[in-house]
């Protein structure tokens, strides 16, 4: 009787709410910061004490298994630290404590070691990124969400259960723009000039037509870029949905009657399907193949040189992305080496500066950088642009890292792929999937 209840939708809803209660959510007040030497230890201890008080209030102990971690930094300073430096500092804060006097269960804040983090999402927001003409009064702060990986995987698997139980669910995937699995149609793009400047009757009209030609060309190019990036995001989401056990740290699903020959054949087909999904994820045409992960300190220099070469080759293969006109999210797909995994934050620390240098991603939409202005608008636009210069010319506003399980056929040095996604879509891939499942779970409840 008990098993029948847990397999029913009321039982599934109870389990889902239990997973929700295990989620750690924090808001850290104060401007996000990177690691500094002056007063570093005192600030780390103050932050850790604040987090430990909240953990104790909600009876949350440190996580001992694999973790999914989302970090959202809201900065207001004119010259914010680089995104990867913000992540590096906070991931260190969330580990072992830096002070004495705590009980054994309080020697760690959120986890024991940052290598427990198998899914990592980092996002940066700034008033000048969201709207260059509006000055926010909100102070800097950080939103932090941490979940046991097993809970994230159960929520991802819930999508298929909802599809099987709900009429029309498959149609939602095709029609709902908010769906993480939605793949927008590739638009027909015409980059030719709309107005013939030779037909202009004055220099002023010729300049106006030239501005219009440039604006429409950028619009068409940006539409295509955004569509391609969103399709890549959808592919990553579909791969995680179809094969959640491919994530490093995932426990294999219980397979009843696996010894039965008929069922064994079904499970073999499932394994083949998971392998195909994994291969498709790693070989997307927009993906950028990266060199093998460095295993010793002496390989770091050649590792960076090879990254630069791969980025430049990709840039030459995809001229439609030159220049990049839309915000960019970078997704790292990592298969660790046989010797063990590499810290996910250190991976971004090494790769993202080269991405900024070679691909030159922009933190804002092209509309904020190339507006179609009348004469009276130009003075206000110049003031807005002056606020953007402090953010740096090239910047990725979000990145996520997905560590995948090793297979026997994987190279001993591991695999690294760089996936270009849309920076306009806020939230990690797994959070967008679980939020989508939550939305439809509530529809069933109603």
Which secondary structure elements does this structure contain, and how are they paired or packed?
Blueprint: H1 2-7, H2 9-21, E1 24-29, H3 40-57, E2 67-74, H4 83-93, E3 117-125, H5 127-130, E4 141-148, H6 149-165, H7 169-175, H8 203-242, H9 261-282, E5 288-289, H10 300-317, E6 328-335, H11 344-359, H12 366-369, H13 378-388, E7 398-403, E8 415-422, H14 429-445
Parallel strand pairs: 2-3, 6-7
Antiparallel strand pairs: 1-4, 2-4, 3-7, 5-8, 6-8
Helix pairs in contact: 4-11, 6-14, 8-9, 10-11
> Based on CA inertia axes, which overall geometry fits?
globular
Helix share bin: 40-55%
Total of helices? 14
- Supply Rg: 24 Å
How many strands in all? 8
The portion of residues forming beta strands comes to 5-15%
Main beta sheet strand tally, sense and closure: 8 strands, mixed
Care to describe what's here?
This protein has 14 helices and eight strands. With 446 residues, it is an alpha+beta fold. The protein has one domain. It has an eight-stranded mixed beta sheet, sandwiched between helices. β2 (67-74), α4 (83-93) and β3 (117-125) form a beta-alpha-beta unit. The relative contact order is 0.14. Mean pLDDT is 79; it is low at 131-135, 170-174, 373-381 and 383-388.
């Amino acid at each position: 009787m008990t098993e029948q209840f847990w397999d029913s939708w009321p039982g599934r809803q109870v389990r889902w709410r239990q997973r929700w209660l295990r989620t750690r959510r924090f808001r850290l007040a104060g401007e996000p910061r990177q690691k500094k030497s002056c007063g570093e230890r005192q600030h780390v201890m103050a932050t850790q004490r604040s987090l430990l008080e909240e953990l104790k209030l909600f009876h949350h102990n440190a996580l001992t298994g694999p973790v999914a971690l989302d970090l959202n930094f809201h900065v207001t300073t004119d010259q914010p630290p680089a995104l990867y430096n913000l992540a590096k500092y906070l991931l260190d804060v969330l580990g072992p404590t830096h002070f004495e006097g705590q009980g054994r269960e309080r020697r760690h804040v959120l986890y024991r070691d940052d290598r427990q983090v198998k899914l990592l999402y980092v996002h940066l927001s700034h008033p000048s990124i969201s709207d260059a003409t509006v000055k926010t009064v909100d102070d800097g702060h950080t939103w932090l969400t941490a979940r046991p990986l097993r809970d994230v995987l159960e929520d991802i698997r819930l999508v298929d259960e909802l599809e099987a139980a709900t009429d029309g669910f498959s149609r939602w995937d095709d029609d709902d723009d908010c769906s993480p699995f939605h793949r927008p149609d590739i638009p027909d793009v015409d980059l030719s000039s709309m107005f013939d400047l030779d037909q202009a009757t004055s220099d002023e009209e010729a300049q106006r037509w030239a501005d219009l030609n440039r604006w429409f060309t950028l619009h068409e190019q940006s539409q295509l870029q955004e569509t391609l990036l969103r399709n890549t995001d959808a592919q990553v989401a579909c791969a995680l949905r179809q094969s959640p056990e491919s994530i490093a740290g995932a426990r294999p699903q219980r397979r009843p009657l696996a010894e039965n020959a008929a069922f064994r054949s079904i499970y073999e087909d499932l394994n083949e399907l998971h392998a195909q999904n994994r291969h498709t994820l790693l070989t997307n045409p927009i993906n950028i193949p990266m060199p093998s992960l460095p295993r010793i300190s002496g390989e770091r220099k050649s590792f960076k040189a090879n990254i630069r070469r791969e980025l430049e080759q990709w840039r030459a293969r995809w001229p439609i992305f030159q220049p990049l006109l839309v915000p960019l999210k970078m997704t790292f797909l990592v298969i660790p080496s046989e010797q063990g995994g590499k810290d996910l934050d250190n991976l971004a620390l090494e790769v993202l500066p080269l991405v900024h240098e070679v691909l030159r991603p922009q933190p804002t939409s092209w509309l904020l950088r190339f507006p179609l202005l009348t004469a009276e608008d130009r003075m206000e636009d110049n003031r807005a642009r002056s606020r953007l210069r402090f953010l740096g010319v090239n910047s990725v506003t979000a990145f996520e890292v997905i560590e995948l399980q090793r297979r026997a056929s994987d190279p001993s040095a591991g695999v690294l792929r760089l996936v270009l996604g849309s920076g306009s879509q806020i939230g990690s891939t797994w959070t967008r999937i679980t939020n989508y499942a939550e939305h439809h779970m509530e529809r069933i409840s109603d």
